[in-house]
Specification:
By secondary structure, the protein is of the alpha/beta class. Helix content is about 35%, strand content about 25%. The strands form three sheets. Strands 13-12-11-14-15-16 form a six-stranded parallel beta sheet, with helices on both faces. A five-stranded antiparallel beta sheet has the order 3-2-1-5-4, with helices on both faces. A hairpin with a 2-residue loop joins β6 and β7. α1 packs antiparallel against α3 and α4 packs across α8. The longest helix is centred in the C-terminal third of the chain and has 26 residues. The protein is elongated, with a radius of gyration of 23 Å. About 35% of the residues are buried.
């Protein structure tokens, strides 16, 4: 969900809408801090805070607040077991903020910045039950939602919106490649889809995919971002090998994988070694990619296994980065 684009859309239709945020979690809860929903007065909504009774009651309360048409900011602490009968057992703090049509211009500005940057941090003065004008901050806060108290006693609302998307460089527009871009569409990835055969690409692709036709596809690695996931699944084993050789030698990618089998892996290891690539680098090549427990060869099934594996690897890398910075809670990379 593009939070500010959805808020702006609801405000164009009506006089007010509510922004719902899971602002704090203690123990087990359906969603993490930073999860959001946008709720219209008629109970239409976008996003999720985890479903169940917590979400249903929150939608009802947020819609009721939006129908009043007054800009408000309020927080509620909920014990999921005693208060709602949910089995999670934890506690959640839910923040409901009503935005009115008067803030439409600011919301459209924030929507444009969120679309351009992918993730934005904002700060706004908080006074009693009202939020002042948000401004984009160049400092990345520790948490997705916080209320800070300045030296003079005034309060600032500090938030993070949007997603950090892991770049994926996907080589090959065959059957599995086509299925994989669809599997990755709703996930926190930004896909550069490379093939030397422009006629292999479908006409329409998901919004997070960029089609690139190149006569020498492996050259795309030169401009790939650090930490990108590199996947080779072309029509040519020789090209897959060349892509893996260049990717491994870069020593700056978060994942280097090639579609295939254990037999293909052994052959590639021998060929890469004959190129003079050190065994310590070759060991980083993943083959076969995706789930090894699913035996189906159907492209959609293979793609589902690959997408699940990449999602787990992306999450693990984010957790490692957070631990390395000494943060108790990292900026969310998905909502």
């Amino acid at each position: 969900m593009k939070t500010w684009a959805q808020i702006a859309s609801f405000l164009k239709e009506g006089d007010a809408c509510a922004l719902v945020t899971v602002s704090r979690v203690d123990g087990s809860a359906p969603r993490e801090a930073g999860a959001r929903m946008v709720v219209a007065p008629d109970m239409r909504f976008s996003g999720t805070i985890g479903g169940g009774t917590l979400e249903f009651e929150t939608i009802r309360n947020a819609a009721m607040a939006a129908r009043a048409g007054m800009a408000v900011f309020r927080q509620q602490n909920v014990s999921l077991g005693p208060d709602l009968g949910q089995c999670c057992g934890g506690r959640a703090q839910i923040t409901i903020e009503v935005l009115t049509k008067e803030s439409l211009g600011l919301c459209e500005t924030l929507a444009a910045q969120e679309a351009e940057l992918g993730m934005i941090a904002t700060r706004a003065p908080l006074d009693d039950e009202s939020v002042g004008n948000r401004r984009v901050s160049h400092q990345s806060p520790e948490y997705p939602f916080a209320i800070e108290t300045d030296a003079d006693g005034s309060q600032q609302l500090v938030e993070v919106f949007g997603q950090v998307r892991r770049p994926i460089v996907l080589f090959g527009a065959g059957h599995v490649g086509k299925a994989l871009v669809l599997a990755l569409a709703p996930l926190p990835f930004e896909v550069s889809w490379i093939d030397g055969r422009p006629d292999q690409f479908p006409g329409a692709v998901p919004a997070n995919v960029r089609k690139i036709a190149m006569t020498d596809p492996a050259n795309a690695l030169e401009n790939a971002r650090d930490g990108a996931f590199v996947l080779a699944m072309t029509h040519s084993h020789a090209l897959d090998e060349e892509i893996m050789a260049r990717a491994l030698l870069h020593q700056r990618f978060g994942y280097c994988g090639v579609i295939g089998s254990r037999t293909k892996k052994v052959r590639f290891q021998k060929r890469l070694k004959s190129r003079g690539i050190a065994p310590s680098l070759i060991s980083h090549m993943v083959c076969p990619i995706g789930s090894t427990t699913i035996k189906s060869k159907a492209p959609a099934t293979i793609a589902a296994g690959i997408a699940a594996d990449l999602l787990g690897r992306d999450e693990a890398l984010h957790q490692q980065a957070a631990a390395g910075e000494g943060l108790a809670q990292n900026i969310p990379h998905g909502q």
